[in-house]
Amino acid sequence: MITTVQTLRFQNQTLMLLYFIRRLLQGLFIVLLVSIITFAIMHLLPGDPVQLLLGDGKIKMTDELRAAIHAKWGFDKPYYEQYWIWLMSLARGDFGESLVRRGVPVREMILEAAPVTAFLNIISLLIAIAIAIPAGIIAGVRRNSWFDYATTFSSTLGVSLPSFWVALMAIIVFAVMLGWVPPYGLKTWRGYILPVAVLATEQMAVLARVMRSATIETLTQDYVRTARSKGLVERLVISRHAVRNALLPVVTVIGFQVAYLLSGTIVLETIFALPGIGRLFIDSLGRLDYQVVQSLVVVLSALVVFVNILTDMVYAVVDPRIRIE
Amino acid sequence: MAEQRSRTLDRRQFLQLTGVGLSLATLAACVPTESTTGGISSDTSTTASTAPTAAGGTLIWLSHQEIAGLGPNDLGATMQAIVIGAIHNSLVAYDINYAMYPDLAESVEVEPDGLKYTFKLRQGVKFHDGTELTSADVKYTIDYYGDPANAATIQSSYTGIDSVETPDDYTVIVNMATVNAASLVNWASNPIVNAKYHQEVSDATYSTAPVGTGPFKVKEWKAAEYTELEAFDDYFKGRPLIDTIRMEVVPEAAVRKAALDTGDADSSAWPLLVEDSLALEADPNFKVFRTPGESIKHFPINNTLPYFADKLCRQALMHALDRQRIIDDLWNGAAEVAQSNIPPNSQYYKADLKQYEFDPEKAKALFDEAGWTEGADGIREKDGVKFAFTCTTITGDQARKAIAELAQQLFKDVGVEVQLAEAPVAEILQALRTGTMDMSIFNWTYSVGVLEPDPTNTLASSGGNNFPQFKNAEMDELCAQGLQQVEVADRKPIYDRIQEIFVEEVPVLYLQYDTWMLPFSTRVEGLPETTSNTYPLYSYELPLTKQQG
Questions:
Q1: Which of A67, A136, A202, B490 could form a disulfide with A212 if both were Cys (CB 3.0 to 4.6 A apart)?
Q2: Which CATH code of 1.10.260.40, 3.30.70.1060, 3.40.190.10, 3.30.420.40 fits the domain covering B11-285+522-546?
Q3: Structure pTM?
Q4: B464: which chain A residues are within 8 Å (Cβ-Cβ)?
């Protein structure tokens, strides 16, 4: 008996390991594909980054000089060779050098910008979770109450108002009119208040809506009725039976937020003048700084792939319903 | 009337109104609470609010773009040029009236034939690392950036140099192989680097940690956030009065305005939205410097396309444009109609050139004369080709897109059809250069600016940025001749003729010279009354101080 259980456990562990390795290899393949596609798209974009070094015509440029700069950047090599050089440096963990911010490794640029965006997102997501989930639950339980209407109204507003407008208004009211916070930048911790608030409002609106509808949904389930009919206190029915199950879709939405790490903050980073990943990305894209854009996309895709694998592994370990086959 | 108008506020007007109303409110609020916004620290007394402090303090300038590099190779972007100018000196420089003065050089001698330049350097000029500037540093700078192998962006400014000699530590002789009249303006105003250090660290690294002779040295550089400079104690003209200068990056124009209103910044080195600049002009807490811009706002057109190939058509399009209306309606009056490729404040500007007044009838007559007659659909055509093309504006450039929209309407009135499109700026510049785009709209200099009239790069057939694909043998000849003469009196007739050709041939549809408006808080003292050159406002030759309080 004992040996059989051990064998089974061993087999299960081996299966897990094999599964993990397979997923990892798949992930690597995906990242490789992403790198090829990004490289191709970037180099298919029309335009020449040399043009952007000229100011409004103040710097003169001859065709020979243009060719010399291209050669210095390695643009005279065939595409497959340029891609190979970049891929090899990626493999070494070196993302190459920026065309615009010369002398600074791309890796350093990313490492400098990433903490700003990460901090902004994590803090605002935590605040959003702390406020939106209880609000969504209460709104769902007390359906059609004034609280529900208020939550629905404000979350609809939060989803539909464009963040650039909210951000500008927030600057005018809280920085210019009231003088409570600086209008831009991160010179003090106060600089984080407005961007975090605006970002949290946006995330809160989405989370509250999902939480509310999931709560309403679970409250109509059979197991909730069973719990009630066996005489459980309503408080326990909601906390143990309804909310636990209602949380699943919310967790999925929170997972998605990781993928929006970049795109969600481009606008806010530009308005509040924060030196984060979003601005690095959009600035580099605008001036065709190939290495920076490509490397950012690859790093982020690797992050998403890795987080996905990790989530699946955690599911497999934690949730008994999910089995590896 | 005024009441009626105030009821229909658009977004900008609202922002403007709230901004103006609020700046008063914050002002009142700011006086008692000394430094709620932070950033400015001073150990000097804060009680004397009207008297300028003798020294110290931090000036905060705002940039719209990141400061990507700090070396001579990064001069292309205006905001970078300002910071680079604070860290370095050049052989000669230009003051607020565009008058040249010797900077690192004590004197400059140019041989009448333009083949030899002799610079006597100042003695006792210190680099930020404590070493002394000698002729070897100047020679190294010219040799390095002039060498095509190093592919520096400023390389073409060294065109024509044969050799650089250094007979002693304080004399630099530049021998020219060919005369290049633009030399002094171009390369003599390029920054001089520390030869030993530059050689040691390579040019790319130099851009991240420069060692110059300028009044300020780099304290901290965060490209996307701020660049902090501190006063250099051993500056050869004496330590600046200000301790620190921070160039902070704030991309959004409306936020730069807010930062000026709250007192978080002292000046925006890149202009605000025109309406915000006008609002600050009316605000007693700000001084706004107006200077005519050096670049022309224009429609570059591909002269090889059938409808743009005939100069009569190009002239007709000029008559079809109501350029004063564009300035009045779309640019808040803050511009001047362009009448030449050379800016009006240049000494080479020719005043009595042919002008294109708004006259649709004349435009129609010129089209008819060129053989482009109206077809059944009201659009002109010739030999089966319709007078229809696409104007591509820069993605997100709402201000200039509005001009393209007005032009679309005005051209339609004379039987010309325009489609509008958008593309990123890198794509537009490349497509124009290779002749694959019909028309665009942006600002560009069709000379070297106020100081130097040479348009070779944009108007000569061989020009690296000949966007209109303009080919004119006389223009090519004149461009070459103009650079052969060093005396202004000898050059003037040549550039007079170049301007005549420009307005007669209309290689591009030229619109206006924008008025450049730069706001300074009145806390900053030591600024001139007016200026015609904006660079020196930020170039720290001025005894700037900042009122505390």
A1: A136
A2: 3.40.190.10
A3: 0.84
A4: 60-63, 65-66
